[in-house]
């Protein structure tokens, strides 16, 4: 049985990416590699929908989050950190470990932050606002554009964790007043884990140049940008060469489909999933209007174990989904629909979920979820 990853990362790989990962490695100071890296850098600008430089580090998305902190802020700097779940909490931990003065704004899990709440929380001396775009632990998306609008005209750096949204959900750093957008290779960008990408505004670059108080070497924006500014761009240290080659292939596929069409596909799959789930009589965890477009969090019915649902879907249907984190463990399941996932996969996942629920005695109308999702697909396909 072929397994289909419908987890919030890693996600399935296109054949072209698998092929690139298996090729003989290039030396990273050669013209051939430089040309490939140059292609990736240009493609990343397209995916980020910005003309800002995009820095590549060999690391997970968490490494990218730390890089944003140590370049933009110094120990003692005050930041407003908005957390809507596990990964907002992780960003807070990173800031605290770097010695920042963190004003942590906790939003109830399942809800999104409101821009007016952010503005009212700002205090004198705040140098940065940090927010997770897409909180995969709860299935919630935050309106990063509206928060950026609320921060316009202020001398405050705006940092966004777009690890699980970039490439699957609309992100426009220049238009939305965002100074640093962090993402990684293994989510909507359809590659294995191992690379993090940071789109940095001129304000963020200047902050990194002025920042004399932070300890950084590997994460240094200045050094990375200097190497990128060569005739053919390079990285200061040895990169994950085959991951770079694979990411270039994946970005090429996104460019071929068209980024706006990719956003639309993810939005369509999200609506299919949500409506199919509701047709089963299940409840979504994220509040209406703030649901993620790359992942759906579903409350587990009373009397059924989340682990049993996941096990059934994997063993009987070859579909691997995720459970809940921390206080949500055992209470929700999470179905990701990001990256190299398509409408047929969503229909298969709904069928598998329905079969699992029926096998554990949950009463529902067989086939209704599939039919509901299919109607969403047909309706939205007509508008393309």
Can you lay out the helices and strands and say which pair or pack?
Elements: E1 4-5, H1 15-21, H2 31-48, E2 54-58, H3 61-72, E3 78-83, H4 86-97, E4 101-106, H5 115-121, E5 126-132, E6 134-135, E7 140-141, H6 144-150, E8 157-161, E9 180-184, E10 195-200, H7 202-210, H8 221-228, H9 241-257, H10 259-279, E11 295-299, H11 306-317, E12 319-320, E13 322-323, E14 332-336, H12 343-359, H13 368-381
Could you please describe the fold and organization of this structure?
By secondary structure, this protein is α/β, with parallel strands linked by helices. The chain has helices spanning about 15-20, 30-50, 60-70, 85-95, 115-120, 145-150, 200-210, 220-230, 240-255, 260-280, 305-315, 345-360, 370-380, and strands spanning about 5, 55-60, 80-85, 100-105, 125-130, 135, 140, 155-160, 180-185, 195-200, 295-300, 320, 320-325, 330-335. The protein folds into two domains: about 15-255, Type I PLP-dependent aspartate aminotransferase-like (Major domain) (Aspartate Aminotransferase, domain 2, 3-Layer(aba) Sandwich); about 260-380, Aspartate Aminotransferase, domain 1 (Alpha-Beta Complex), CATH 3.90.1150. The protein is built from 13 helices and 14 strands. The protein has a seven-stranded mixed sheet with strand order 2-10-9-8-5-3-4, with helices on both faces. Strands 11-14-13 form a three-stranded antiparallel sheet. A two-stranded parallel ribbon has the order 1-12. Helix 10 (about 260-280) runs antiparallel to helix 13 (about 370-380) and helix 12 (about 345-360) runs antiparallel to helix 13 (about 370-380). The longest helix has 21 residues, at about 260-280. The two termini are about 35 Å apart.
């Amino acid at each position: 049985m072929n397994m289909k990853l419908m987890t919030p990362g890693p996600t399935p790989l296109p054949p072209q990416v698998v092929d690139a990962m298996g090729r003989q490695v290039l030396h990273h100071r050669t013209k051939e590699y430089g040309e490939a890296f140059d292609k990736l850098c240009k493609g990343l600008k397209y995916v980020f929908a910005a003309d800002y430089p995009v820095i590549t580090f060999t690391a997970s998305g968490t490494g990218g989050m730390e890089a944003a902190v140590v370049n933009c802020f110094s120990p003692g700097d005050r930041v407003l950190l908005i957390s809507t779940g596990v990964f907002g909490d992780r960003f807070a931990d990173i800031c605290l470990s770097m010695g920042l003065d963190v004003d942590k704004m906790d939003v109830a899990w399942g809800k999104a932050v409101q821009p007016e709440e952010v503005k009212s929380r700002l205090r004198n001396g705040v140098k940065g606002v940090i927010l997770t775009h897409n909180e995969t632990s709860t299935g919630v998306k935050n309106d990063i554009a509206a928060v950026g609008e609320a921060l316009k005209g202020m001398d405050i750096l705006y940092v966004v964790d777009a690890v699980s949204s970039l490439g699957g959900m609309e992100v426009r750093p220049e238009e939305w007043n965002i100074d640093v957008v962090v993402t990684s290779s293994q989510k909507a960008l359809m590659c294995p884990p191992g690379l993090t990408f940071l789109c940095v505004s001129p304000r963020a670059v200047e902050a990194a140049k002025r920042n004399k108080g932070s300890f950084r070497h590997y994460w240094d924006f200045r050094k990375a940008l200097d190497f990128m500014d060569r005739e053919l761009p390079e990285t200061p240290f040895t990169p994950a060469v085959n991951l770079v080659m694979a990411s270039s292939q994946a970005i090429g596929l996104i460019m071929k489909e068209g980024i706006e069409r990719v956003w639309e596909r993810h939005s369509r799959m999200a609506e299919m999933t949500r409506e199919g789930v509701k047709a089963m009589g299940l409840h979504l965890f994220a509040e209406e209007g703030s649901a993620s477009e790359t992942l759906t969090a579903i409350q587990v019915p009373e009397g059924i174990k989340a682990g049993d649902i996941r096990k059934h879907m994997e063993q009987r249907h070859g579909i691997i989904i995720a459970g809940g984190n921390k206080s949500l463990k055992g209470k929700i399941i999470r179905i990701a629909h990001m990256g190299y996932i398509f409408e047929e996969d969503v229909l298969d996942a709904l069928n598998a979920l329905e079969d699992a629920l029926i096998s554990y005695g949950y009463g529902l109308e067989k086939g209704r979820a599939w039919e509901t999702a299919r109607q969403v697909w047909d309706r939205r396909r007509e508008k393309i």
